[in-house]
From TrEMBL:
Protein name: Uncharacterized protein
Domain of life: Bacteria
Transmembrane segments: 43-61, 73-95, 101-122
Keyword tags: Membrane, Transmembrane, Transmembrane helix
Amino acid sequence: MDTIRRALGRLSLLYALIFLVAALLHAGAGPGPLRRPPVPPAVVTEALCCAAMLVGAYGALRPRPWAWDGLIYTHAAALGGVLLGVLATALVPGVQAGTLLVAYHGTVAALLAAGLGAAFYVSRVRR
């Protein structure tokens, strides 16, 4: 179980970096074809997801008593943020969902769901 905890902690760090880059892209900072107009709600959501993943990574990599609960809560919160982005892309008029945006949301949602499932599995086995 320690191996899974450390792996999820390292993945949480990677997800935090991905959310940070996404927040910067939503803020309007990006090279050439990736540059888009700023979307402040998306910046806030991505920054909160980044912070959540950092908290989960901290709990997992520095074995804290709340590490498994932290991984569950932070993965669930980040997954909620990604699904909010999917809904915003689908329902808000005037938002164009490019291939890269759809691929990003789908991939990150699948990875977070897998991590959430692993954390739930281990939390059940530990009982």
